[in-house]
User: Fold this.
Amino acid sequence: MSWMLTADAVPQLARGAAVLGTGGGGDPYIGALLAQQALAAHGPVTVVALDEVPDDALVLTVAMMGAPTVMVEKLPSLDEVIAPVKALAAYLGRPVTHVACAEVGGVNSTIPVAAAAALGLPLVDADGMGRAFPELQMVLPTLYGVTASPLAFADEKGNIGVLQTVDNNWTERIARVACVEMGCSIMIAGFPMSGSQAREALVPGSLRHSLAIGAGIADARDTKSDPVGRTVELLGGREFFAGKVVDVERGTTAGFARGRARIENALSTLTLSFQNEHLIAEADGQVLVTTPDLIIVLDHDSGEPITTEALRYGQRVRVIAAPSDPRWHSAEALAIVGPGYFGYDIPSHRFDGTAELVAADGTVQNGAAEVVA
Assistant:
C-alpha cells in the first residue's frame, strides 16, 4: 500500500535510519534538512511498497558516496542530488520511474527523499542493504547479478560523469578515485533495475522500519521509559556494553572515514573499529560482534544514534547489536562484507556472539556463542 511522506515525518525517518546505519551513512541531520527543503518546495513524496513496483519500471538508487566526515562541511544541494539521475536517464535513453535507497543509513535514507521530491517520482519503500556499508558493491543486488553501472555521479561544482564498468568491484574502484578527486563526497545514481529485479534484490519495508525506530525512541523519551531498550526491542537485538568514550582515532583516507574508538566502564574496555560504519566490536581481546550484523552506538540517556564522525571523548554511550538481513550470512555475501574483506583475520560473529565459519563446501556453520548476552 502506498503512503505519503511529508516533511513532518523526516526527523523520525532520519533518526531511525541513523540507527540502522551502524555509525555510517552520513550525518542524518544534514540529510533531514535537505529532504525537508525538497518537500517544502515540491510537496510530499509518494512511497510505494516494493510489491507495487511494476515489472517494467526503471528503478535507480540515489546516494552520497564518500567520507561522512567531509559532508559535515561540504553540504550538497538539490541540483547536485538530481544531476546524476538526469544524466543516467539520458544515458539509458528512457525515463526513470522510481527512486530507491542504496542503503538505509543516515543521510542516504533522506537524499533519495529529496531526489524523489525534486523529480516528482515515487520512492520505493526498500533499500539495498537493510543497514549501511562503506563500499558501493556491498549491496544485496550485487548477489543477484544487478550491475552498479551505468553509474552517474556529480559534484557541487557541476562536474558530471557516467561510468560503464565490467563489474561492481570496478565501479567502486573507479568511482572512488573520482570521488576523492572531487572532494571526497559526490552524489551518485546507479544500479538500474526493473521492478521484478528490485523485488528480488532489495530489502522491503526499510523506510517504514526506520520511521518506527525513530518514533519509538521519541515515544520512549516522552513516556520516560528507556529509549535504548525500546530500540533493542524493535531491532530484535541486544545491548552488550555501556560506558564512556575515552579515545577516538579517526582520519579520512582513500575516501573513507577510518578509525577506532575505545569505550570504558569499571569492568572492561570496548574497542570499536570502523570504516564509515562500525565493523568490529571487541572487549579485552574477545570479539563480541562483527560485520555484517549491526553494531550501533546510542547516547546513554536519550537513545539518539551517534555516527562515527560524531563520536567524542567523554560521551556516555550504550552499544547494541542487531541481526542483519539473513542474506548477508551466505558464504558469497560474507566474502564481500565479512571481517575478512576488511582485513580482519577473524570469523564473522553474529549479534548474539555466535561465530560463523565457512566450511570447505561453501556452507556457513554457526559455532558456539562466545558471549552470553
About this structure: The CA atoms of residues 15 and 353 lie 26 Å apart. The longest strand covers residues 238-253. The chain has a mean pLDDT of 93.
